[in-house]
Amino acid sequence: MLTYRQLQQEALRWIDEGADTDVTLTLVKDALNRSHRRLLAQRTWPFMAWPREESFDTAAGIRTYALKHGVNRILTLYDQTYRQPFSLVSRREWEAMGVNRVDQQSVPAGAIYGDTWPVAAQPSSAAVTAVSSSASDTATTVILQGIDSSGNATTETLTLTGTTPVSGSVLWLHLWAVSKTGTWVGTLTLSSGATTLLTLTASEYGKQYPTLEFIETPNGARTYLYTAQRTPATLTNDYDIPDTPYPYSEIHVYDALLDMTAYNTELGAKEQRLWKERRDDLWAALVTACDEQIAGSRPRFVRPMTPTVRRLAPFTS
């Protein structure tokens, strides 16, 4: 397999900068990470699958739920109670389905992707408390942005006092941004009452939680299972292994080199054609390697176009 460092060295050798340890190396590292993020986000790859099936429980009156940090997109959604697949429904289908956004439905007819939260759970018209695991964090701050209990957009800054919790005065209904300032030593924990909203290590400056919003409001507790695609990792350490499997991970070298042509004007059309050909060949090989068509495969099916979405019925044995 190829490590992050080996990818760097191969790219540098192609542009005759094998001994570079300065600006060109930094640009190559950036280009490799751009390639890693871009190419792995273009398709649903089996090697990028979230390692297990996750679940969440609904509660009466709550329409939006956070998924795991690091989830990129949902692959399947399943109603455990009714033992049936559950659908993502586009807004343009709501009228035809008779979606009711006012009354609480026993079983919502579907869901959509919601916004991205900076916290794993939202406060419920309550103040937010911040605390560090280190007594050294006394000059650091946390900036909160969102909507208060009156529905107004607002901002609040909390100054840490080490391991002593600091509570704000704003009653928060929804947070859409959390920012850290200063140099941190310990782990930050944000909470609201007994609920932990967010934890960030000293080197973490934020998290993103994708959400799922039911198109109708649940009237009680139900369990939903989902499988997902994970977010590509950021390559940081020299011996990090790309998410792209070997030998196809070499594609990032040629993709990064094509990016580098905007920086190094000495790289001409001849080199670009060669790198593009090699990138395209590796891409085609990777797609073929991940195709699920093997000997004995079943035909691929999709749902009928009509009816678009059916409302779920209880499972019967």
Q: Characterize the main sheet.
A: 4 strands, antiparallel
* Shape call: flat
Mean pLDDT: 91
Into which percentage range does the β-strand content fall?
A: 15-25%
What is the count of helical runs?
A: 5
* Radius of gyration (Å): 24 Å
Instruction: Kindly report the oligomeric state of this protein.
Output: single chain
Low-pLDDT parts are none
The overall strand count is 16
Give the helix level as a range of percent: 10-25%
Structural class by helix and strand composition: alpha+beta
Task: Kindly report the spatial arrangement of strands forming the biggest sheet.
Answer: 1-16-3-4
Order of helical and strand elements: HHEEEEHEEEEEEEEEEEEHH
Task: Give a written overview of the molecule.
With 317 residues, the protein is α+β, with helices and mostly antiparallel strands. Helix content is 21%, strand content 25%. The strands form 5 sheets. A 4-stranded antiparallel sheet has the order 1-16-3-4, with no helix packed on it. A 4-stranded antiparallel sheet has the order 10-7-12-13, with no helix packed on it. It has a 3-stranded antiparallel sheet with strand order 2-14-6, with no helix packed on it. Helix 1 (4-14) crosses helix 2 (23-41) and helix 4 packs antiparallel against helix 5. The protein is flat, with a radius of gyration of 24 Å. 24% of the residues are buried.
